[in-house]
Specification:
HTH_LacI (chains A, B); DNA-binding; homodimer; DNA binding (chains A, B); alpha/beta; 12 strands; Rossmann fold; Lambda_DNA-bd_dom_sf (chains A, B); six-stranded parallel beta sheet; elongated; 434 Repressor (Amino-terminal Domain)
Chain lengths: 348, 348
DNA sequence: GAGCATTTTTACAACGATGGAACGACGTTG
DNA sequence: CAACGTCGTTCCATCGTTGTAAAAATGCTC
């Protein structure tokens, strides 16, 4: 039922190729014919068949976005930005969810054959170095966030060590002495980096490194944060501050602390990581590291684009490791409002 | 570089079609040849070219999911479920974001030509009846949530009137007399339905309908909820309860109320709508209507699938209007914990 | 072992779009 | 006015896959 080039051509009284030329903006078409074709295009409501075009051209117009789970606010927000950035460059985005498991990350990489996509943006969590060896990289691949260290693949992320150091430095700066960390995880590279930043900051502030103030979290959901916090509160000498490796952990931790009868920030200061929209409205609002998400999305899509075209011309385009900016948003979970709660909303 | 049927055929010493037959599980292939082909398949690592296959078969393998914004938790959660449901049926999902504007909803419907997708799931917000007239519906279309009343299109949603009545009935049931509503919006069909349920419940409880207890919200973001709440608090006689048309509005409303010095639920009870994950962990946790989101996702994808196949055989498959179940999750924002806050997490 | 039915394999033509070559129809130039 | 370069158009092949139909191989019966 849908119109094809052939239909349009018949209606306009020209050859199929001429219509194709008009559609693709080829210069040399007689004005009269162009007019006729455009009219026919309009009346038939012609839309190119992307499958066919892809078959012929070898490009698909799709890029894959592989991430743990769309329902996690950080990834939802990131995905929204990636889609927007990709669309500006004429790409559609296919989203693949891995639940953060190695199996599904690997299969996403191979199953989405090179036939289907022009590139992939991957936010890995469990992928090991050797998985990349198996991956015949025929399309550009960019990793976002997590990074398997010894694989030469384009990468976009913030400086995790510095960000963590900034966050924990802030806690030390407001006088906290027993600063815990939630989110350590041997399988996550970013966890190690954030832990490193945490340690750096403690050392810098002349505070001791206590192993049992560092709590592991397998998943990074609210539930795990609450769990970890309860664990910390069971200590003889509970912490007076906690740095959580993402906002969800922090939200969970705050919940557990409040249920335990603590006041935030008086008894316990909390810092998160990601600046999800939720963190600006939680009660108390959450101090957090705010990565520039749209810079990340933009850089990732841009890299796919550049490497895609560079492949043809200049094969020596070096592997990129792009660091995007971040800031620390200081909110009520670390600094109580001096006056009574005001009638102003939290900053966006 | 990627292997095609031709390559495999050459390697196995048979015709292209025989390989195709093996790949597609056609029965009549000599065991010896089948073995050889399978071996060749394995050594080349052949993957079918989906674009080509779809071109031939007339299917695309994609369905579109058109929604306002992925960064809104409800839609992020829904999208995650739709993707999972679609994948079980061999579909990939293309996500289109409309920001809830009529223009972009309309253009998503037309631009995603029938060439590109086998069906579309649409969560509309601003679309008017007449927009559907223009839409040459050549592929199955399912509307989720919102529903343009007089258009015969498959639809999946919960019973909004009943849900709202349940929520407000709960507020009346715990003794609230001045129950406000946040989220009225002339352009949203669900808003009218929820308002209707709100009014039904008030009437049922013998409470007066006060127009200025109903506050409009253009967007349904946290910000708008806070804004609306401040408006209500400026009243001479502020409400003792508020029913918000989604969780984000409720979160914003709670924020504004707390900033204003109110205690929740003692001074103000709050009910939301959607049961986003955030609502179970907010402080206080939020009482909310919990639609069965995976039932919605499942039903929507299933409808696309059934209508797609029904089109061939039985053109008289009637328009469906599926109501999915919901529950009311009662949490701290309406019912204070009787004992001191316990060391238990909120229910999931 | 001829005749016939049944398997198994292959050749060919599509699906819709586009790159390239070929072909006309011009207007210029010498 | 013949030779030539430009412009505009059409024809053909092709991307990888699969449905159709025809061809080839096999098995069975008498």
């Amino acid at each position: 039922m849908a119109a094809t080039l052939k239909d349009v051509a018949a209606l306009a009284g020209v050859s199929v190729k001429t219509v194709s030329n008009v559609v693709n903006g080829y210069g040399f078409v007689k004005p009269e014919n162009r007019r006729r074709v455009e009219e026919a295009l309009a009346t038939t409501g012609y839309r190119p068949h992307l499958g066919a075009r892809n078959l012929r051209r070898g490009r698909t117009g799709f890029i894959a976005l592989v991430l743990p789970e769309l329902s996690i606010p950080y990834f939802g927000e990131l995905a929204a930005l990636v889609i927007t950035a990709a669309q500006r460059r004429g790409w559609n985005v296919l989203i693949e969810q891995t639940q953060g498991t190695r199996d599904r990350e690997r299969s996403a990489l191979t199953a989405m054959g090179p036939h289907m996509i022009d590139g992939a943006i991957l936010s890995p969590q469990a992928l090991a170095t050797e998985d990349f060896a198996a991956f015949h990289r025929e399309v550009p691949l960019v990793m976002v966030g997590e990074h398997a260290v010894d694989v030469p693949i384009d990468h976009v992320a913030i400086d995790n060590v510095l960000a963590a150091r900034t966050a924990v430095g802030h806690l030390a700066g407001i006088g906290r002495r027993r600063i815990a960390a939630i989110g350590q995880n041997p399988h996550r590279g970013t966890a190690s980096l954030r832990l490193e930043g945490y340690r750096d900051a403690l050392t810098e502030a002349g505070l001791p490194l206590l192993d049992d103030l560092v709590v592991t979290a397998m998943e990074y959901h609210r539930h795990d944060g609450a769990e970890a916090m309860r664990h910390l509160l069971a200590r003889q000498e509970p912490p007076d501050a906690v740095f959580c490796f993402n906002d969800l952990l922090a939200i969970g931790a705050m919940r557990a602390a409040v249920e335990h009868g603590l006041r935030i920030p008086e008894d316990l200061a909390v810092v998160g990581f990601d600046n999800t929209e939720e963190s600006a409205y939680s009660i108390p609002s959450l101090t957090t590291i705010a990565p520039d998400k749209s810079a990340i999305a933009e850089a990732a899509v841009d890299l796919i684009s550049r490497r895609g075209t560079a492949a043809a011309e200049d094969a020596t385009f070096p592997v990129q490791d792009i660091q995007t900016p971040f800031t620390l948003k200081i909110r009520e979970s670390t600094v109580a409002r001096t006056t009574q709660l005001r009638r102003r909303g939290p900053e966006a």
